[in-house]
């Protein structure tokens, strides 16, 4: 990966030190929805919590109280379309409020991706790319790794399958080529194999997450045993969840090497891998980012935060 991505890993030091012009978080039902905001601890001028129009369960009420007590602007009950409108409005308001001379002070935005679904994460990246002015902007994506809990065994039929967002649908240069699917692995039993069958993939490359929490690895192995047993070892890529830049470099290299295939990226597992897939696709528009979901059979489950935070800084604009 060359420097065209303008990315760097950032650590807990930045999370506990840096100030931001805008902080965007998900107002969801997971306990970890406030973890990044608590760590930033008031060092954001504008604080925006974007809600969902479903699943007001788990820690939703506790999160709502905390956001209100800590001066967040809360926009609740957002459908996917309303989410896009609210997000773009917040960004436009930020751009219009910036002083003309910011040569030494780029705009700084923090986005907690931990609790946004993949559709909304795709909308965030799409909106940033489409609305950015000709200014220097630093965008810090933060991800709080979930505290380990034993997975609940579920085998659900894939009810939803397709591009994660219209701007990540991609455009295959030659529809007649065989299809390669690059899939992130998670807990979902049979999801990747079902997607490979649906897409009639000629080749599957599995990205296996290496977490700083060791308990995850045997559970991911167990959930994906049939797939892993069936794959050529060269098509099983272990990636470090807490090293986003390395993951993106690896993913970028593999996509470049699949020139004889049409490529679909299927970001399962940690949201950090979803972010990696979407950023890589912005440099490879001939690829497509898909999602598969069990739809109505998904059960809401509270997720607690760990003490592991993953950060990635994206520099945009003139140097």
List keywords for this structure.
319 residues; alpha/beta; Rossmann fold; seven-stranded mixed β-sheet; 10 helices; 13 strands; 32% helix
Textual characterization of the structure:
The protein is 32% helix and 27% strand. The chain has 319 residues and is of the alpha/beta class. It has 2 domains: 3-148 and 300-316, Rossmann fold; 160-297, Rossmann fold. A 7-stranded mixed sheet has the order 1-13-6-5-2-3-4. Helix 5 (118-131) links the parallel strand 5 and strand 6. Helix 9 crosses helix 10. The two termini are 19 Å apart. The model has no long low-confidence stretch (mean pLDDT 90).
Estimate nothing, just give the exact number of structural domains.
2
Give the class-level CATH name of the largest domain: Alpha Beta
Strand content: 25-35%
* Low-pLDDT ranges: none
Short description:
The chain is an alpha/beta fold.
Question: What layout of secondary structure does this protein have?
Answer:
Elements: E1 7-10, H1 12-17, E2 20-27, H2 35-40, E3 44-51, H3 60-69, E4 73-75, H4 80-97, E5 107-112, H5 118-131, E6 137-146, E7 160-163, E8 179-184, H6 191-199, E9 203-210, H7 216-223, H8 225-230, E10 236-240, H9 244-257, E11 262-266, H10 271-281, E12 288-293, E13 305-316
Parallel strand pairs: 2-3, 2-5, 3-4, 5-6, 8-9, 8-11, 9-10, 11-12
Antiparallel strand pairs: 1-13, 6-13, 7-12
């Amino acid at each position: 990966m060359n420097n065209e991505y303008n990315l760097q890993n950032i650590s807990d030091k930045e999370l506990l030190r840096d100030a931001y012009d805008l902080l965007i978080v998900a107002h969801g039902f997971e306990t970890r929805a406030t973890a990044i905001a608590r760590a930033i601890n008031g060092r954001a001028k504008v604080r925006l919590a974007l809600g969902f129009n479903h699943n007001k369960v788990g820690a939703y009420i506790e999160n709502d109280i905390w956001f209100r007590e800590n001066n967040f602007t809360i926009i609740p009950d957002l459908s996917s379309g309303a989410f896009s409108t609210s997000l773009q409005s917040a960004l436009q308001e930020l751009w219009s409020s910036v002083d003309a001379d910011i040569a030494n002070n780029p705009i700084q935005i923090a986005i907690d991706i931990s609790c946004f679904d993949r559709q909304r994460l795709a909308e965030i990246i799409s909106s940033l790319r489409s609305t950015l002015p000709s200014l220097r902007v630093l965008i810090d994506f933060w991800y709080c790794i979930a505290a380990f809990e034993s997975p609940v065994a579920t085998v659900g039929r894939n009810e939803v399958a397709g591009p994660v967002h219209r701007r990540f649908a991609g455009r295959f240069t030659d529809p007649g080529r065989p299809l390669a699917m690059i899939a992130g692995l998670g807990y979902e039993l049979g999801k990747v194999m079902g997607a490979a069958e649906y897409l009639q993939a000629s080749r599957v490359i599995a990205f296996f997450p290496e977490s700083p929490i060791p308990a995850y690895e045997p559970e991911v192995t167990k959930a994906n045993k049939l797939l892993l047993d069936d794959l050529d070892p060269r098509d099983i890529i272990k990636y470090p969840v807490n090293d986003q830049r390395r993951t993106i470099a690896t993913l970028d290299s593999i996509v470049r090497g699949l020139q004889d295939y049409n490529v679909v990226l299927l970001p399962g597992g940690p949201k950090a891998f979803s972010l990696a897939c979407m950023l890589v696709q912005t440099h490879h528009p001939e690829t497509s980012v898909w999602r598969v979901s069990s739809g109505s059979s998904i059960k809401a489950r509270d997720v607690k935060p760990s003490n592991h935070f993953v950060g990635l800084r994206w520099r945009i604009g003139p140097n």
